[in-house]
């Protein structure tokens, strides 16, 4: 070997450590582990029968199979984009066909948004905590982050105003049942955030991955809907990322991004450069499934996941020692635990795996500013209620030992 | 609207014009057009029956369906990576499982390689012409290009040596039946290229998308194989990109990249940040299909595409006016036409679509240095022989008119 690869690397991934989430996902395959680690849906709830029929239909038609297996346009399968237009219109956002791009999961939308908007050293505003996958998507484009504290209603407005004064390119936000902390931004706070960002000339990237998974209370307008309401029903300052990974299945890798035409035009060019297009057959199957069963299927998910959320909260109430606090999410997949100051989530995880066969994600990974060492993310979505109770009991037992 | 999106763009796509290939792909749907534009496989040759069975098998098993529809690891489906290991070993390259990453088509491998290796202003060596999709993948990372002239045996060595003296990060090369010009790099030239690049400390990115589609002569060792032979069978200085888009179907969006562990480790982190993983079910279906029918299926493709290549070359021999020259590819999907100096491929395309219902890609898009205005790329893969003859006759007729 006549050179060192390390000398050729451009340095964009210097900040990308191996992800704790990715490493921990590997634990899920060990059956003795009760895993609250992965933020993954329960495969027992996948609409497998509807999907099997959708594939069958495609292969029953020669022409259909040919089209489903061929290259397609970068923008995405037109009937699926039309379905998304209808869905978004139902939420108060009126889009043209050229204002929606189908992406390979909403993770890919985050990568493209980073590529489009972030120059080296640009400021990006995030909450603390925020979605780790967003930090991973944005960081190769070399931003600096400004982190905004959260309370029960979302980003603290005084912190947001301070962040906006520093002129970030955009604010990234998961308004519904945020991954990782389960917090939902209140209606008033949503209005204030859209108004403040617009006034400051700062774009908003809304990640709505969990929005459909609400178990209590009324659905709140998305930031995209508030933006549109201020602009005659049309998108103006918000880029909205949607996903079918939580409402249908993750493995098809289908999500979308909607935004004003100028933004989507450029994202389409990035899509073409990045992977030409999202799998044709996957888009067709997904379109068939959501056209047939989206609403009833999501209702079924809500019932199942609500039971698990309730089981986790009840077990936390029953078992957790004093000094430990947690969120009470109205939906989504996550409960967020705060240990006493000075406690370490990573150290607890090491013990949890070795001594108690239970896993979760230490919260520090979700902070751009490397704070949050005493926090944990617990996902309840892929675990049945009695396993949830047992897993929480085991974590509580470890904490009792630590406290002793 | 309180800001202009244009003020927020980071400028990475300033050089990314709307792709001629992408725009032209839209023409393929007009049945009256004979299109030589898209470099696409013929859907009539897709292994639809084998694929339908593969999907059926997955859905017949509850556990199988659950796994196929769930998130998976970023590295790719392990049995598929093992199949790729066996395939590459058959070509003389001994890889570990952590030296292969499954990507969403080889296009995505090119994007990741750009992200990994190209810093703003870094030099990248390409041939002229080169694959447009590679230029599109690399350009957002803001390289400068050095273009190397080609002859019938590949990159001209004197030009390559001059390019290497300027210390590019890597040489990008499609050694087999190159898209767009159909040229295959000779055996001696391959050895020389690997040795020269290694001596100069310059990596090679080998795009082997068309390697299996050989219609005449003997298969030549890949650059990865030559690299491995110099290094005890193991990868050293070559990153190899493979694709199932030409040998199976494009729509699953499955390809791979193989390279030394250090490189693949970083590409896996990029994969996770970019879209988490390639579609699980697509990888499983592809693995099933290639395990069952890869060799006989590729043989069938070779027979069908050889007939088309022969039909196109015979029609060019019969109809083209003097002053027009073209390549005689030993495989792949493309014949490359050079018009008399001063002729314009874009102008000819406009007339071809309006006056003759025939389409192709003007060659200038395939030159990083914006030369090649008098060249055309004709793809024969998706058109039946009598339509090929008719299409070539029409283009020749237009050229006669121009010459008159």
Describe the structure.
The structure is a homodimer of 404-residue chains. Chain A has two domains: 11-46 and 295-403, Aspartate Aminotransferase, domain 1; 48-293, Aspartate Aminotransferase, domain 2, CATH 3.40.640.10. The relative contact order of chain A is 0.16. The first copy, chain A, has helices at 5-8, 20-25, 48-60, 62-69, 78-90, 105-117, 132-138, 157-165, 187-200, 223-229, 261-275, 280-319, 345-356, 385-403, and strands spanning 34-35, 100-103, 123-128, 144-151, 154-155, 170-173, 203-207, 238-243, 255-258, 325-326, 334-338, 358-359, 361-362, 375-379. In chain A, helix 4 (62-69) crosses helix 12 (280-319) and helix 6 (105-117) packs across helix 11. An eight-stranded mixed beta sheet of chain A has the order 2-9-8-7-6-3-4-5, sandwiched between helices. A four-stranded antiparallel beta sheet of chain A has the order 10-11-14-13. Chain A is of the alpha/beta class. The interface between A and B is large, with 92 and 92 residues.
Task: List strands and helices in order, with pairings.
2 copies of one chain form a homodimer.
Chain A: H1 5-8, H2 20-25, E1 34-35, H3 48-60, H4 62-69, H5 78-90, E2 100-103, H6 105-117, E3 123-128, H7 132-138, E4 144-151, E5 154-155, H8 157-165, E6 170-173, H9 187-200, E7 203-207, H10 223-229, E8 238-243, E9 255-258, H11 261-275, H12 280-319, E10 325-326, E11 334-338, H13 345-356, E12 358-359, E13 361-362, E14 375-379, H14 385-403
Parallel strand pairs in A: 1-12, 3-4, 3-6, 6-7, 7-8
Antiparallel strand pairs in A: 2-9, 4-5, 8-9, 10-11, 11-14, 13-14
